[in-house]
UniProtKB/TrEMBL annotation:
The active site is at E101 (proton acceptor). This is Ribose-5-phosphate isomerase A. Pathway: Carbohydrate degradation; pentose phosphate pathway; D-ribose 5-phosphate from D-ribulose 5-phosphate (non-oxidative stage): step 1/1. Keywords: Isomerase. It comes from Lysobacter helvus.
Length: 215
């Protein structure tokens, strides 16, 4: 799948235009995108990063990292996903960067999602759904999730997000109403972000292959 990730990432370069400030996601697929972006670093104005991990890689390539508060809305956001359904709705957060990823996706006019073929599913939920929570609310939120969904939340022990929070991964879901679940779980006190991207799905999905598939 490594080669498929690289091919998807390379194809996403087609969407980068001269002078752009590019929103950049997180993960192994995005790492290939950052490496490809570095080849045209003199033609872009900079990047807005969704994680400390991506910030480090961008800076190592000499790409300026800017604050979203300073840039305003972006023309383009490129990010990976853990699952993608036929409506371009996603599960994200395998890399624990879901909150900043969702913020940048919301701020961006076009969201290009880069995935390998294994990420495509008919119904979201086989990949455990990440939920970022305020630490003191971890067990409260876990109980609410069980009551609301019947899924099994598992604390991603030892992981602290860039925002200082914790992650619950919800196993055993078959998400037939992603929009409703995203809305309902987001309202539980203590939930910072739900790794469902249904309210703001991707606009374009690139599935890595020879040639890449653009959906
Ligand atoms: C990070 C994410 C990533 O986009 C997702 O986990 C996919 O990662 P990879 O490209 O390594 O398969 O949502 O929070």
């Amino acid at each position: 799948m490594t080669e498929a990730k690289r091919l998807a990432a390379e194809k996403a370069i087609d969407y980068v235009e001269d002078g752009m400030i590019v929103g950049v996601g997180t993960g192994s697929t995005v790492a290939y995108f950052i490496d490809a972006l570095a080849r045209m670093r003199d033609r872009i104005a900079g990047a807005v990063s969704s994680s400390d991990q991506s910030t480090q890689r961008l800076r190592a390539h000499g790409i300026e990292v800017m604050e979203l508060n300073a840039t305003g809305s972006l023309a383009l956001y490129v990010d990976g996903a853990d699952e993608c359904d036929p409506h371009k709705r996603l599960i994200k957060g395998g890399g624990a960067a879901l909150t900043r990823e969702k913020i940048i996706a919301e701020a961006s006019k076009r969201f290009v999602c880069i995935v390998d073929p294994a990420k495509r599913v008919d119904v979201l939920g086989k990949f455990p759904l990440p939920v970022e929570v305020i630490p003191m609310a971890r067990s409260l939120v876990a109980r609410e999730i069980v009551a609301m969904t019947g899924g099994q939340p598992v604390w991603r022990d030892g992981v602290v997000t860039d925002n200082g929070n914790w992650i619950l991964d919800v196993h055993g879901l078959s998400i037939v109403d992603p929009l409703g679940l995203e809305r309902d779980l987001s309202q539980v006190p203590g939930v910072v972000c739900v790794g469902l991207f249904a309210r703001r799905p991707a606009d374009v999905v690139i599935v890595g292959g020879e040639p890449p598939l653009v959906l």
